[in-house]
Amino acid sequence: MHREHIPQVSTGDLLRAAVARGSELGRKAKAAMDEGRLVDDELVLGMIHERLREADARRGFILDGFPRNLAQAEALGRLLATLRQPLSAVVQLEVDYGELVRRISGRRTCADCGRVFNVSTSPGEVAEPCPRTGAAHRLIQRPDDNEATVAERLRVYEEKTRPLIEFYRARGLLRVINAEGGVEEVTRRLEQALHAAAQSAARGRRKSAGTRTGSGKARSSKKRSSKKSAGKTRSGTARKAAPARASTAARKSTRKQAGKSAARSRAATRRRSR
């Protein structure tokens, strides 16, 4: 995210920040959490809406931890449509479940500086002194990072979240990468997937814009052609009418001359009779 200069939008971070600010959404979220209830999707969507309207999200964003089920995915689609910020990609990180349990259960957070470590995958970093105190990091483990809780979270994932894979695959948004290996290696795969998705979205926008422009030109050309044809038709009708009038006048002149000839013929006949 830092390399791309776009924010990571975590629903957990949004909830904690809203509660800390004491905003209306934060107060409602705190009430739900204090009562042991899940925070309503509408509240979470409201927080995402507020966050994505901030200046740093205009270039793009990464949603972390949302959506988690089909109802949330559909609601998110409607929200992003109103913001005119549709998703360009949805990344599925493929990791063996045994590896996931090892990673999550090994996660620790420094109580002083807030840095997150993993005692299983990066034990060397844990030995570094805390930048805030200069002493060793005071590591704590989240209550939901134990193996039993992780196993339950994976069960819920299979039931609620996995259906999103086909949901987004059907919309042409899904990108699947192998998330096992070193941090730099997985990061490279992720960046490649996101760049490919961004380029594909850009081509789609250019194609869509070209189609709209082309349609406009076709309609404009059609209108001009229709007007031009109409002008020709009216002009043609006028040109046809003029000879018709000339022909009528000619017929009248012919009848008049025929009448004069008949009169002269009758006069000559009378003269010969006398």
Strand runs, count:
7
Radius of gyration: 40 Å
Mean pLDDT: 76
List SSEs in N-to-C order. Answer: EHHHEHEHEEHEHHEH
End-to-end separation in angstroms reads 126 Å
What structural class do the secondary elements suggest?
Answer: mainly alpha
Report the uncertain regions: 215-274
Shape, per Cα inertia axes: globular
Spatial order of strands in the largest sheet: 5-4-6
Main sheet record: 3 strands, antiparallel
Strand content: 5-15%
Looking at the chains present, what oligomeric state does this protein adopt?
Answer: single chain
How many helices? The count is 9
| Percent helix | 55-70%
Keywords:
64% helix, mainly alpha, globular, 274 residues, 9% strand
Report what the structure shows:
By secondary structure, the chain is mainly α. The protein is built from nine helices and seven strands, in the order E-H-H-H-E-H-E-H-E-E-H-E-H-H-E-H. The strands form three sheets. Strands 5-4-6 form a three-stranded antiparallel β-sheet. A two-stranded parallel sheet has the order 1-2. A hairpin with a 5-residue loop joins strand 4 (107-110) and strand 5 (116-118). Helix 3 (41-52) packs parallel to helix 4 and helix 5 (97-105) packs across helix 7 (147-161).
